[in-house]
Amino acid sequence: MGKNKNKGSPRNYTLASGVARFSKSAMFHKKAIYKFMKKKAPAKESKKKAVFVEKKIGGAKNGGTRMVRVKKLANDYPTAVKAAKKPFASCQKSHPAKLRSSITPGVVAIVLAGVHKGKHVIVLKQL
User: Fold this and answer.
1) Cα distance between residue 127 and residue 103, in whole Å
2) For residues 64 and 53, is the Cβ–Cβ distance under 8 A?
3) Which residues of 83-113 are buried (b: 16+ CB within 10 A; e: fewer)?
């Protein structure tokens, strides 16, 4: 019997676009997973536990009985805190801005925007 040429390489490799070659359902059948899946028995109907219980109340004008919860509800709810906004990931951090080749340190330039618009300045360095 010859060697398997595909040994070590995944059967369901990702294509160039990052999408898997075979779908989830196609791999389910290729691997024959349906043979090994356990058969689920029908779920038995369990008796629902009572949420309220009737209790006797003493006193002439109290009505005699009350419906009381078996398990008390929580009474200490945490205060709502707004999640802090995440700062936007700046694309300036990932790569430096390219500067025009004619703009070098020592060149006189004219500011086009901001408070100092129209002023002549000397370029020191690129930030």
Assistant:
1) 13
2) no
3) eeeeeeeeeeeeeeeeeeeeeeeeeeeeeee
**What is the rounded average pLDDT of the residues 63-76?**
90
Q: What is the pLDDT of residues 9-62, one digit of tens each?
A: 888 888 877 788 999 899 999 988 888 887 777 778 888 888 999 999 998 888
- Verdict on whether the full-model pTM lies above 0.70: no
Which residues lie closer than 8 Å to 103 by C-beta, 6 or more apart?
109, 123
Q: Which of 43, 46, 63 is nearest to 55 (CA)?
A: 63
Structure token pair of residue 45: 């109907």
Cα separation of 37 and 15, whole Å?
A: 29
Q: What is the pLDDT of residues 70-86, one digit of tens each?
A: 999 888 887 888 888 87
State both tokens at 46.
Answer: 């369990």
Using CA atoms, how far residue 90 sits from 63, 87, 93, in Å, is 68, 8, 6
Q: Are 11 and 4 in contact (CB under 8 A)?
A: no
**Beta-bridge partners for 120:** 110
Q: Which amino acid is at 5?
A: K
